[in-house]
Design goal:
The complex is a heterodimer of chains A (about 350) and B (about 325).
Chain A lengths: L13 H8 L31 H11 L1 H18 L1 H4 L38 H37 L1 H15 L3 H12 L4 H27 L3 H8 L4 H9 L4 H25 L10 H8 L8 H28 L10
Helix pairs in contact in A: 2-3, 2-13, 3-5, 3-13, 5-6, 5-8, 5-11, 6-8, 7-8, 8-11, 9-10, 11-12, 11-13, 12-13
Chain B lengths: L1 H27 L5 H6 L5 H10 L6 H13 L13 H36 L4 H15 L2 H15 L15 H35 L2 H8 L4 H23 L1 H14 L5 H11 L2 H29 L10
Helix pairs in contact in B: 1-13, 5-6, 5-8, 5-11, 6-8, 7-8, 7-11, 8-10, 8-11, 10-13, 11-12, 12-13
Chain lengths: ~350, ~325
């Protein structure tokens, strides 16, 4: 975003921008453009470091209730997944009376077993399966994004830094991937990789996200490459690998973090989509997408089988989106750098 | 201008060539070979040989490659392994269904998104803006198949207004056809609307802050004319890009929503072919989706040259 534009497109970013770009204005007296903020000069003659990521994050979350709410739900989601065996009222594979209505499950059916969200067509407790379903969502989302992040960032840095044929090959690959919506590409990879299973799902979605990271990082590197500190690093004979790792990457961290946060909900949606299509992890593992697809046949008798897992997907994705949106404002990353596909 | 369009067309063809090549090699890279994967470990050597000849896999690789492309050019995509039907015949039955859903989806999406975006931008920080923004956030967070299931429960099961299963071809009457695809169309249209609306809002807000808008105001141009003539003309440009690119979202949504509503479109075809290891069909559907994507983007690029006077004669990208 160009700093010259005082009125940011949607107004939400301009306050935070002022807040961390211009800490000197509160010091009183004349502030010259380009002059270092006075309070950053310490008594020992050194310059105080800029705000760290953690400080910016804390301040940002404090000022943005939407992002804070998102963060709380995200933490809740992670804990639900990790502590599923403790939280879940029942084992996800124990069968009770089938299709018990959540509203009346305490008075009908098994009687002594209470099913807050009812039971599904096999008699599984829906709530317990949703809680266990968070495990697959979290695992797949974290692993796919980590996979795409690692490979995409490596490709992006190399392509952006060296240019030349590496860059050409990368951009042709990005062109290729452009032609595929995520879910279709993932389904195709699963078809040709042969077979279902959690690792195939992770690789399929992960590959589909590589280009998003590669493109973003390449763009960052292209602009950072010309920075003076990179040139001086090169002038003092620092190796290319070291320059990439120590000088360039740390300065591209903010957009990458935002990208990661906004890719996780897309990964959750993609995993749910694949599971819904029957192309996800094994059909016996409880996942949200699979639960929706199983409940689809019983919409008229037992709406709760598919509706509650659907809300689980929605709430989780919404929380990540709100958190990611907040981060984008905190780190002042341009909107539109994250693909919504 | 002509050169620019020609360049874009060539580029689209290049991407299609790349996609077709990758799909070609993808099939041949299947672990254990495609024939074994399709027929299973118990298949007799004769059956394996027969299918290998049938698919042309007994030919040298370069001949297979040439055959593959000549097939694509004359519209011969091979035959389905499970039913033996021509894939083009299968596609001609499936494509109208998916297209119907997609058209309703795009229409619903744009009809919701453009007005909502305008209202949201012109009444920034008023209740209408908050409602639209929250709705867009929700739309972005719900997979199309979940929206489809909710719509089916409310409008199909509870209210009984619309059918929730199957497809009625348009030849059997426009009314029944529309009724059969309205819910799936809305289901794929809502997430699309969310994205387009956000773009409309931010683009219009940005345009309204441009100096020329202040000039128009200073000249005393009526606020309606300012909004719809001066601002919209420029604000719509990025919206068109997003609306074009996000056809991907409609396609993906349609794949899953077809399964919710029991409509045998290309999504159903893709999923069934993957589960049956019916590779020729999988290849065909993937190519078709890629072609739709590439040519939608091409159309957006060309449309751009007409609506955005700043882009002419190529230049960058």
């Amino acid at each position: 975003m160009s700093g010259a534009n005082p009125t940011a497109p949607d107004g939400s970013t301009d306050d935070s921008e002022k807040a961390h770009n211009n800490p000197s204005s509160i010091a009183g007296g004349e502030v010259y453009p380009g002059a270092a903020p006075p309070e950053r000069f310490r008594d020992d003659g050194h310059i105080a470091p800029r705000r760290t990521f953690r400080e910016r994050l804390v301040v940002g979350l404090r000022n943005d209730r939407k992002a804070l709410a998102g963060a709380v739900v995200v933490v809740g989601f992670v804990f639900t997944a990790l502590l599923a065996p403790i939280i879940a009222p029942y084992d996800p594979n124990t069968t009770f009376t089938v299709m018990q209505d959540p509203a009346t499950s305490s008075t009908t059916g098994d009687g002594e077993f209470f099913h807050l969200l009812g039971t599904d067509s096999y008699g599984h407790d829906v709530l317990s399966r949703i809680i266990y379903g968070a495990q697959v969502s979290l695992l797949v989302a974290a692993a796919t994004v980590l996979f795409a992040f690692t490979i995409g960032t490596a490709i992006g840095v190399v392509a952006g830094y060296y240019g030349g044929w590496v860059d050409t090959v990368l951009m042709r690959y990005v062109d290729f991937q452009w032609a595929f919506p995520t879910l279709i590409l993932a389904a195709g990879i699963i078809a040709f990789a042969g077979g279902l299973g959690v690792w195939n799902v992770i690789i399929a979605i992960g590959v589909a996200f590589i280009d998003d990271f590669a493109r973003l990082v390449r763009g960052e590197v292209l602009s950072l490459r010309e920075e003076e500190y990179v040139m001086s690093a090169r002038a003092i004979g620092m190796s290319d690998t070291r320059i990439m790792a120590k000088e360039i990457l740390p300065n591209a961290v903010a957009p990458i973090i935002v990208q990661v946060t906004l890719m996780i909900p897309l990964a959750i949606l993609a995993e749910a989509g694949l599971s819904f299509l029957g192309l996800g992890v094994t059909p016996t593992t409880p996942t949200w997408g699979l639960m929706l697809s199983e409940g689809r046949q019983f919409l008229s008798q037992a709406w709760w089988i598919s509706v509650f897992p659907g809300f689980a997907i929605m709430i989780t994705v919404l929380a990540f989106n709100m958190f990611g949106d907040g981060l984008r404002d905190v780190f002042d990353v341009k909107e539109g750098e994250v693909s919504d596909r | 201008m002509k050169r620019y369009v020609a360049k874009r067309v060539l580029y689209a063809l290049f991407v299609m060539w790349l996609v077709a090549t990758v799909v070609f090699f993808g099939l041949r890279a299947i672990p254990g070979g495609p024939i074994r994967a399709m027929l299973g470990p118990e298949a007799t050597p004769e059956a394996v040989e027969a299918l290998r000849t049938d698919l042309g896999l007994d030919q040298p690789l370069y001949i297979q490659y040439v055959d593959w492309f000549t097939g694509l050019f004359v519209g011969d995509l091979g035959t389905s392994i499970t039913t033996g039907q021509e894939i083009t015949v299968l596609l001609s039955a499936a494509v109208p269904r998916t297209f119907s859903i997609a058209i309703v989806g795009v229409a619903v999406g744009l009809l919701l998104a453009i007005p909502a975006g305008i209202v949201s931008a012109t009444r920034k920080h008023e209740p209408a803006d908050y409602v639209a923004t929250v709705a867009a956030f929700l739309g972005l967070s719900m997979p199309a198949f979940f929206i489809g299931i909710l719509l089916a429960i409310v409008f199909g099961v509870q209210l009984g207004w619309l059918p929730i299963y199957g497809y009625t071809p348009v030849e059997e009457g426009a009314g029944p056809w529309f009724r059969s695809i309205l819910l799936p169309g809305i289901a794929v249209g809502l997430p699309y609307a969310a994205i387009v609306m956000r773009m409309m809002r931010s683009s219009l807000l940005e345009t309204m802050n441009e100096p020329y808008m202040t000039t128009a105001r200073a000249k005393g141009v009526d606020s309606r004319v300012r909004l719809y003539k001066h601002a919209m003309q420029n604000a719509l440009i990025p919206v068109i890009t997003v609306a074009g690119i996000q056809v991907a979202l409609i396609l993906v949504g349609s794949v899953t929503v077809e399964i919710v509503f029991g409509i045998n479109g290309i999504g159903r075809m893709l999923v069934d072919s993957i589960l049956d290891r019916n590779y020729p069909v999988t290849q065909a559907v993937i190519l078709l989706v890629a072609a739709i994507m590439v040519f939608t983007n091409l159309a957006v690029d060309i449309l751009y040259t007409f609506i955005d006077p700043r882009i002419r004669y190529g230049g960058e990208q």
